[in-house]
Design a protein that fits this description.
The protein has 1 helix and no strands. By secondary structure, the protein is mainly α. The mean pLDDT is 91.
């Protein structure tokens, strides 16, 4: 078996505040998508919904 060497990954210099803001934004987007899915599946949101 051949050992595969991967390039060294360096940690980004990002503050805790920025990381928390990114996480919060991602959470809000996910919550919105889940709510739209629920509304679409129950017929309360007409039309088409593209969910990931």
């Amino acid at each position: 078996m051949t050992l595969v060497q991967h390039p060294i990954v360096q940690q980004a210099d990002v503050s805790t505040d920025v990381l928390l803001e990114i996480h919060t934004t991602m959470w809000r987007i996910r919550a919105f998508e889940e709510r739209m899915r629920e509304m679409f599946l129950t017929g309360r949101l007409p039309g088409f919904v593209h969910l990931y």
